Amino acid sequence: MKYSLFNLIRNTFSGHSRWTPAWRDATPKTHYDVIIIGGGGHGLATAYYLAREHGIHNIAVLEKGYIGGGNAGRNTTIVRANYLLEGNQPFYEWSLKLWESLEQELNYNVMMSQRGVINLYHSDAQRDAYVRRGNAMLMHGSDAVLMKRDELRDMLPYLDYDNARFPILGGLMQPRGGTARHDAVVWGYARGADMRDVDIIQNCEVTGIRMENGAITGVDTTRGAIGANKIGLAVAGNSSRLAAMAGMRLPIESHVLQAFVTEGLKPLIDHVVTFGAGHFYISQSDKGGLVFGGDLDGYNSYAQRGNLPMVEHVLESGMAMMPSLGRLRVLRHWGGIMDMSMDGSPIIDKTPIDGLYLNTGWCYGGFKATPASGWCFAHTIARDHAHRYNAPYRLDRFMTGNLIDERGGGPRPNVH
Ligand SMILES: Cc1cc2nc3c(=O)[nH]c(=O)nc-3n(C[C@H](O)[C@H](O)[C@H](O)COP(=O)(O)OP(=O)(O)OC[C@H]3O[C@@H](n4cnc5c(N)ncnc54)[C@H](O)[C@@H]3O)c2cc1C
User: Fold this and answer.
1) What is the C-alpha to C-alpha distance for residues 14 and 210, in angstroms, rounded to an integer?
2) At 152, is the secondary structure helix, strand, or coil?
3) Is pLDDT of 289 > 90?
4) Quick one: DSSP state of residue 354?
């Protein structure tokens, strides 16, 4: 059912009892043209664009729990396209463009809020690096504004400018960056895919991948075996586990990343702000809570929960940037399993196994990539070759040396 003012008014006459479910509770068929494993934003967006752009409708999305129960529903919702490198910026700018029309495209309110993302700088050297990045963004047709300390002080008066351990000298702003409501994105894509006959099957864990003569034939699941011509893996922190079922070892480590939310406040933070002298990013949700996060927990894990030492570490960075945070109570914190690649950039590619495709390596930043990731993965699965935006995100770049190391961190997943 289309969401519109007309339908809203019409449904008031039946006490809103006639709205249909946003998607069907599908029963698995015996065979699909394409199976997408993982009902997060990336998996659902892939199914949506496969149906919408490539006319493939015999598709199932298999999710072991409930859709959006993974990182898609656990992140800090930041959307931006402020990258330096040639391999990254065109992809993320394309993603931001898709975000800008996503609500109309899906007929669903994903609460896209282009409130501006500001990266603070604290030294002359850091300012020079930000100038370089801002110029790279502008040259790729994106938007970037370098801000001086006084401009920032007018805009973000709650930061510590005078007694800070790491004095704030200015910031690089992307005005078109911002936030979106994470689970609404999942629900919007699920509804759009379901409207195009995609079967969304929850509580269906994939336990094995079936192959014959080096080609995919289907999957084993907790709801029985299902045949498929093609399989796309979009399981984020579980990528290594799923790839191992097909006998592959990936250049991916799984780590815990935590997010935090405080008690609700009146409007205080109008933008997304990131600290430049430590790893800390903060925004305010529409409900009023301050939403923030920082570094990984620092050890490999498949647990969707974090530990207390990282709470202290993240809050230290927050307090160094914005001391008034110390007067707030943190209501909740939780963890997600991050698919950390060896150069900090994602992989969207075919694998050496015929019919098996891979979407992983999203590190800290896969939420903002959701539309472009789904778009490019669908293209790769449907046409058996990469779209120009995901052409650099090859699996074999770790063998050929064509790495996309945005932060210059080297082969250490925990620093990307
Ligand atoms: C705390 C935190 C903060 C973050 N903040 C941001 C941010 O501000 N901005 C940003 O851009 N990104 C952020 N990210 C990253 C972002 O959330 C992820 O990169 C993105 O959501 C990944 O989406 P996905 O669809 O690939 O994965 P997921 O949403 O994790 O989906 C994968 C799904 O696969 C399912 N699955 C796994 N194994 C199986 C199986 N065997 N069978 C069937 N299903 C299976 C899982 O249950 C899961 O639902 C953050 C992540 C975390 C954890």
Assistant:
1) 49
2) helix
3) yes
4) B
- For residue 267, how far is its CA from the centre of ligand 1 (angstroms)? 28
Q: Where do we find the tokens 């801000």?
A: 147
Which of helix, strand or coil describes residue 113? strand
In DSSP terms, 149 is beta-bridged to: none
The Å distance, Cα 40 to ligand 1 centre, comes to 6
Contact 220, 207 (CB under 8 A): yes
| Per-residue pLDDT at 162 exceeds 90 | no
pLDDT tens digits along 17-46: 999 999 999 999 999 999 999 999 999 999
Measured from the CA of 234, which atom of ligand 1 is nearest?
26
pLDDT band at 107 (very low <50, low <70, confident <90, very high): very high
Testing ligand 1's pocket by substitution, the residue of 36, 46, 48, 71 carrying the most ligand atoms inside 8 A of its CB is: 71
Give the integer Cα–Cα distance in Å for 376 and 390: 6
70 CA from centroid of ligand 1 (Å): 5
CB contact burial 368-401 (16+ within 10 A = b; e otherwise): bbbbbbbbbbbbbbbeeebbebbbbbbbebbeee
Picking from 314, 258, 305, 265, the residue whose alpha carbon sits closest to that of residue 285 is 265
Q: Give residue ranges with CB within 6 A of ligand 1.
A: 37-43, 62-65, 69-72, 74-78, 205-206, 234-236, 238, 242, 257-259, 293, 336, 338, 362, 364-368
SS3 73: helix
Q: Are the C-beta atoms of residues 78 and 283 closer than 8 Å to each other? A: yes
CA of 368 to the centre of ligand 1 (A): 11
**Mean pLDDT for the chain?**
96
Q: What pLDDT digit, counting tens, does each position of 36-92 carry?
A: 999 999 999 999 999 999 999 999 999 999 999 999 999 999 999 999 999 999 999
Question: How much of the chain is helix, strand and coil, in % rounded to 5?
Answer: 30, 25, 40
Which of 179-188, 287-296, 405-414 shows the lowest per-residue confidence on average (mean pLDDT)?
405-414
* Confidence tier at 317 by pLDDT (50, 70, 90): very high
> What is the Å distance from ligand 1's center to 69 Cα?
8
Q: How far is the CA of 176 from the centre of ligand 1 (A)?
A: 23
Report which ligand 1 atom has the smallest distance to the Cα of 367: 11
The ligand 1 atom nearest the CA atom of 77 = 8
Arithmetic mean of pLDDT, 85-100: 97
> 119 by DSSP, 3-state: which?
strand
